[in-house]
Specification:
The protein is α/β, with parallel strands linked by helices and 270 residues long. The chain contains eleven helices and nine strands. The structure holds guanosine-5'-diphosphate, potassium ion and magnesium ion.
């Protein structure tokens, strides 16, 4: 059975979408080793069944909570056939932060741009084609609470499963960081670590000082990563700060092109 995983910020409408997809066909358990709730269900579509997994709601995919580690481990190690990233259209900048990290992971991802009713009410207009083009991933508008857009979303998700990944856009971290990412990536590849994580992703995480990855990685590589970090810090600033900045810069450029929010109203008296 193919697996579809749902990821998104808390309150983006993930569980509402999960319920719309699975109906009463669901069960709740726990992720092994942690107290985080695991929700799975079955979607019936065109005579086929699909396994749907509702991952814990997170703002990021770092190592700051069990929720984040559960979500990113599932995506990279259990390797779902497709990830649906639920994005709250009324809070798009903040929600896209998680999206940038899915792109970094090289995940096959499609966006459910949810809460489109509330966005409309708030006069936020989103050019979906442009958003999709700028991110390099399919974007489907949904109102999960009214079951709007769900069919289109499912069709796109299933269709995408059978297609090659399109050219997802990459975050440009600048040359100081890129140089060290590439160096580290090579060292990691040559070490044949068998971590289940992509080497480039590990390289980024090491430069970010990810505690979880630092614990499972070879001491030699950690030392090399520390030198890379120091080199970057001397040339520019702490790599962790640059990487976060660059993610927001990437988001800012996209939002500028694809999202129009109402200007603050100016009251004029005649
Ligand atoms: P989760 O934390 O991501 O699982 O979010 P929930 O599914 O629990 O949804 C949070 C709240 O938003 C609930 O009150 C839902 O009924 C509501 N909600 C979900 N989707 C939509 C939507 O598309 N439009 C509106 N207006 N509300 C929604
Ligand atoms: K709401
Ligand atoms: Mg939920």
């Amino acid at each position: 059975m193919n697996t579809i995983a749902l990821v998104g910020n808390p309150n983006s409408g993930k569980t509402t979408l999960f319920n719309a997809l699975t109906g009463t066909n669901q069960h709740v358990g726990n992720w092994p080793g942690v107290t985080v709730e695991k929700k799975e269900g079955t979607l019936d579509f065109n005579g086929k069944k699909y396994n749907i997994v509702d991952l814990p709601g997170t703002y990021s995919l770092g190592a700051y909570s069990e929720d984040e580690v559960v979500a990113r481990d599932f995506i990279m190690k259990d390797d779902p056939d497709i990830v649906i990233n639920v994005v709250d259209a009324t809070n798009i900048e903040r929600n896209l932060y998680l999206t940038t990290q899915l792109l970094e992971m090289g995940t096959k991802v499609i966006i459910a741009l949810n809460m489109m009713d509330e966005a409309k009410e708030k006069n936020i207009s989103i050019d979906i084609k442009k958003l999709s083009k700028e991110l390099g991933v399919p974007v489907i508008a949904t109102v999960a609470s009214k079951k709007n857009g769900i069919d289109d979303l499912v069709k796109e998700a299933i269709d995408f499963m059978g297609r090659e990944k399109t050219s997802q856009n990459k975050i440009d971290y600048g040359k100081d960081i890129d140089l060290e990412i590439n160096r580290l990536k090579e060292v990691i590849e040559n070490a044949n670590l068998n971590t289940g994580y992509p080497s480039e992703w590990i390289a980024i995480k090491l430069l970010e000082g990810d505690e979880y990855i630092s614990k499972i990685i070879d001491k030699n590589i950690l030392n090399i990563a520390q030198k890379s970090s120091d080199t970057i810090a001397v040339a520019a600033m702490e790599p962790e700060l640059i990487i976060v900045d660059k993610r927001y810069e990437f988001i800012g450029n996209i939002v500028n092109k694809a999202v129009k929010k109402p200007k603050e109203e100016v009251i004029t008296k005649s």
